[in-house]
From TrEMBL:
UniProt key word Lyase: yes
Coiled-coil residues: none
Superkingdom as given in the UniProt entry: Bacteria
InterPro entries: Glyas_Bleomycin-R_OHBP_Dase (IPR029068), YycE-like_C (IPR058997), YycE-like_N (IPR058998)
Key words of the record: Lyase
Protein name stated in the entry: Catechol 2,3-dioxygenase-like lactoylglutathione lyase family enzyme
Gene Ontology MF terms: lyase activity
Length: 119
């Protein structure tokens, strides 16, 4: 039951427009739903989505969203995320070794891991 559940991650954002640009133009997610102060983005058919709500973000350095890509992180993907308002940051020795970390326009960190997820 729990293993089949859909996961929603919700975060506040100062600017829905900036968040949309980062997550869609930068990472390639689709807009799944939009209202005045709410934006949901994700990949069609994925078992998760990201909900962004108008508000005041308070990210810490350990507020990570990690995507396990099971392969190299392309330079074009990183460049696209930076062009869409992200900023490449260090996340410490472990994540710097196993991926690339990008802070979104609100300062929340997205880790693109070169590793595969294994249980």
């Amino acid at each position: 039951m729990i293993a089949d559940a859909h996961l929603r991650i919700a975060r506040p954002t100062r600017s829905l427009a900036n968040a949309e640009r980062f997550w869609t133009a930068g990472l390639g997610l689709d807009v799944l739903f939009r209202e005045e102060e709410l934006l949901m983005v994700g990949a069609p058919g994925a078992a998760w989505h990201l909900e962004l709500v108008a508000g005041e973000p308070a990210p810490g350095t350990e507020d990570l969203l990690v995507l396990y890509l099971d392969g190299p992180v392309g330079d074009a993907l990183v460049a696209g995320l930076v062009a869409a308002g992200g900023r490449r940051v260090s996340q410490g020795d472990y994540w710097d070794r196993w991926g690339v970390t990008i802070a979104d326009p609100d300062g929340y960190r997205l880790v693109l891991s070169t590793r595969a997820w294994t249980n």
